[in-house]
Amino acid sequence: MNHNDFENDDVSKILSRLNSLEERIAILESNKDRIWNIQTPREREIEDDDLYINDKKSESSSLFETNLGEYGLAWLGTMVLFFAIAFLGQYFINAEKPIVFLIVGAVSVFACFVISYFSGKSFIYLSFTFNLCGYIVLYYFILRLHFFNNNPIIANELVSVILILFVVAVQLYYSIRKQSQTLACCALTLAIITAFVCNNIQPFFLISIISTGLALYLFWKYGWWKALIFILSITYLAYLIWMFKNHSLLAKNPVDINHYFIFIYFSITTAIYSLVVFKKPNDLYNSGLTLSIILLAGIAYSVLLLLLVFMYFSTAYISFFFAISIYCLAYSIILKFYSPYKYSPALYALFGFVGISIAIWGIYQFPNAFLLLICQSFLVLILSLWYRSQTITLINTVLLLILISVYYKISGELQAVNFAIPAVAFLSARIINWQKERLNIKTDFIRNLYLLMLFFSLLYATYKGLPGHYITVSWIIITGIYFGLSIILKNIKYRWMAVANLLISALYLFVVDLAKTDMIYRILAFLVFAIVSIGISVYYVKKLKGKNPDDY
User: Fold this and answer.
1) Which pLDDT score, from 0 to 100, does residue 210 have?
2) What is each CA distance from 82 to 6, 132, 238, in whole angstroms?
3) H or E element, residue 111
4) How far is CA 372 from CA 63, 354, 365, 378, 500, in A?
5) pLDDT tens-digit profile of 260-303?
């Protein structure tokens, strides 16, 4: 057999194989409908889901691409165009060609508005970005007529500022006319930038305060809360940067009227933002947004105030905090009657109490201020009953715990404070138990915290305040008092406090008194301990046997 025979044989095998495959494909195609009918519904559902998911992925990818192309690239292109125009204007300023600079500005602004007008029907969003760019370019060129220019075209700063603010006012007018929150936000931002570039304290703060008032007006009128939050952030950021920028200038001069004006302006700005609590929530925003605005303004104001105090008023800040506390407490009372938000009076009342605390600390310093601060804590709890505020009660408890911890850390030696702490803790626990429905307190958590304060602080107070040989006797007497309270008030908590106090007394009796106390005091301590222990035991046998202790 030669080589050609082998090749013919191979070709015939390949052709035979291809014919076999064609026959099989024909059979499969003819039986396709039958295979679909045999397939289970679940298998068909899985295939449909896969097709649906693939369609959704395709739609999602297409939507992302569309948004990126229509919105993202429109913004990017407009921003790049603005910088190109700005650099071109800078080039002619550097070349000392003011006429050409003005021509470039006029042509650029005109072109932006013309493109915006004629593209409004076909390219809505691109038209909006060109309109916005037109206002910004107009603002930039008018700003450069005086500011950031070695050879200003307009030498008078006041005239330049008035012209800039006129442009801002026009933009704000058209933003209201077109109901554009973004355009209004841009206009107010440009106003704050104008205030920042001014070299005088009064125009800076006056323009900023007017911008704040306008942002609040737009919030009240049209519910533009996004613009309000943005302007709030920009305003306080501008204040912060301005303080650091002018620190060296202000520090050269002694504290004068301008330093007090800074405090007044900070406070007026924050007071304007505080007015949001009078507007009722609606479909455009909820109560959580109002709370966010209040907290953001309060935190920013606190930071600025602390910086102002540390920079210029390290020894003369007491009047500031007294003024703040009077305003906040008075405002909280007004909110109690007129604000639709229940939490708003509590927030301002707490801020006022914090202001009073700082003022007390500034007058008396530590540790002498601790007594007044602890007594103030009890006063705050009393006022929380009038506010019907669980928030005030909880935060006041936390602040009291922090205050007590600081006191024990840095002092712990003042007897008046040592005994004031358990007295305040006991009275607070009783008031909370008595008025828990008024305070809307569902659990005993806060009350238990006060009882723990009472238990440990009273042990500490007697340990520090009495001679060593009377400590055990005093602790045993306290045990009897706790037990008596448990009977009078029918409360198991005081009974557990009595038992715990008795165990601590026993430990102290055997560990300390046996080694250090004179025999006569040792006998007295043992007798008192035995009497109290036996008396409690008899009570348990006679009064509590067969009864549920939780009833007492």
Assistant:
1) 92
2) 79, 10, 23
3) helix 98-118
4) 64, 13, 11, 10, 30
5) 788 888 899 999 998 988 888 776 677 778 888 888 988 999 88
> Which of 445, 308, 335, 340 has the alpha carbon at shortest distance from 390?
445
Full-model pTM: 0.70
What is the C-alpha separation between 112 and 104, in angstroms, rounded?
12
**HEC secondary structure over 465-503:** HCCHHHHHHHHHHHHHHHHHHHHHHCCHHHHHHHHHHHH
Q: How confident is the model at residue 112 (pLDDT cuts 50, 70, 90)?
A: confident
**Alpha-carbon span 148 to 298, nearest angstrom:** 34
Asked whether 479 and 501 are in contact (CB, 8 A), the reply is yes
Q: Which amino acid is at 284?
A: L
Of 361, 378, 377, 359, the residue nearest 369 (C-alpha):
361
Residue found by looking up tokens 């295939």 in the block: 47
Q: Which two tokens stand for residue 90?
A: 């800078």
Kindly report, residue by residue over 190-212, the tens digit of the pLDDT.
999 998 888 778 888 899 999 99
Do the beta carbons of residue 439 and residue 485 sit within 8 Å?
no
